[in-house]
């Protein structure tokens, strides 16, 4: 067991991989990753490295700077899988957000484009060195409703797993089939406000 820094409660590592509802419209994830911190920071801020686990695109490294993300989820794993019909429109899609915090190499936050006229949400990455490893805490705030929370939870979970695969030198897991399983899990986990 470790301690959840937000609540000072014990965290069971078997379930710590799942994101938690941290408040109204907020989901939070933790991952302990192989360091050093500068390496993890590069995977958050450099387009070529970020494109291996999440989305490529240019980032202006300053508060107020733009971050453009272009998603090619089908290219994140060497496993060939068909893109589920409901996600085909997102393959190759992207958006531009604004950096709200930039404290190299510890904190990066930026706005996340709302859909269908929704207000932008915000995603934050906080990095803390821990005995040669790095604790990454990802918090996605201002999510409009349960539907938005479900939408980002399975996505962040699989993207963080692919990040770990890359950092540990493993072949990234299949993206779409893993994501489908996580979507179903989060449907159950978030339903009760967990």
Kindly summarize this structure in a few lines.
The protein has 194 residues and is α+β, with helices and mostly antiparallel strands.
The stretches of 5 or more residues where confidence is low (pLDDT under 50) are 1-15
Examine the coordinates and then state which fold CATH places here, giving the name of the CATH topology: Alpha-D-Glucose-1,6-Bisphosphate, Chain A, domain 4
CATH architecture grouping: 2-Layer Sandwich
- Structural class comes to alpha+beta
- What is the CATH domain class? Alpha Beta
Give an overview in words.
It is a single chain. By secondary structure, the protein is of the alpha+beta class. The protein has one domain (2-188): Alpha-D-Glucose-1,6-Bisphosphate, Chain A, domain 4 (2-Layer Sandwich), CATH 3.30.530.20. 27% of the residues lie in helices and 30% in strands. The chain has 4 helices and 9 strands. The strands form 2 sheets. A 7-stranded antiparallel beta sheet has the order 3-4-9-8-7-6-5, with helices on one face. A two-stranded antiparallel ribbon has the order 1-2. Strand 6 and strand 7 form a beta hairpin. Helix 3 (146-167) crosses helix 4. The radius of gyration is 16 Å and the shape is globular. Mean pLDDT is 89; it is low at 1-15.
Structural topology:
Layout: E1 2-4, E2 9-11, E3 20-23, E4 26-34, H1 37-45, H2 47-50, E5 66-70, E6 94-103, E7 107-112, E8 121-130, E9 133-141, H3 146-167, H4 175-191
Antiparallel strand pairs: 1-2, 3-4, 4-9, 5-6, 6-7, 7-8, 8-9
Helix pairs in contact: 3-4
């Amino acid at each position: 067991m470790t301690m959840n820094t937000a609540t000072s409660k014990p965290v069971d590592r078997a379930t710590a991989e799942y994101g938690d509802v941290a408040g109204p419209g907020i989901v939070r994830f933790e991952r302990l990753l192989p360091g050093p911190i500068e390496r993890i920071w590069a995977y958050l801020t450099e387009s070529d490295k970020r494109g291996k686990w999440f989305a490529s695109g240019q980032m202006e490294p300053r508060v107020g700077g733009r971050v453009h993300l272009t998603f090619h989820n089908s290219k994140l794993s060497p496993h060939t899988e068909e893109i589920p019909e409901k996600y085909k429109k997102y393959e190759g899609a992207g958006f531009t957000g604004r950096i709200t915090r930039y404290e190299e190499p510890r904190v990066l936050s930026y706005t996340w484009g709302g859909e269908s006229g929704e207000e932008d949400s915000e995603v934050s990455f906080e990095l803390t060195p821990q005995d040669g490893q790095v604790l990454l805490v990802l918090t996605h705030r201002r999510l409009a409703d349960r539907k938005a929370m479900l939408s980002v939870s399975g996505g962040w979970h699989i993207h963080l797993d692919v990040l770990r695969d890359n950092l540990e030198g493993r072949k990234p897991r299949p993206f779409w089939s893993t994501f489908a399983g996580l979507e179903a899990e989060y449907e159950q986990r978030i339903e009760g406000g967990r």
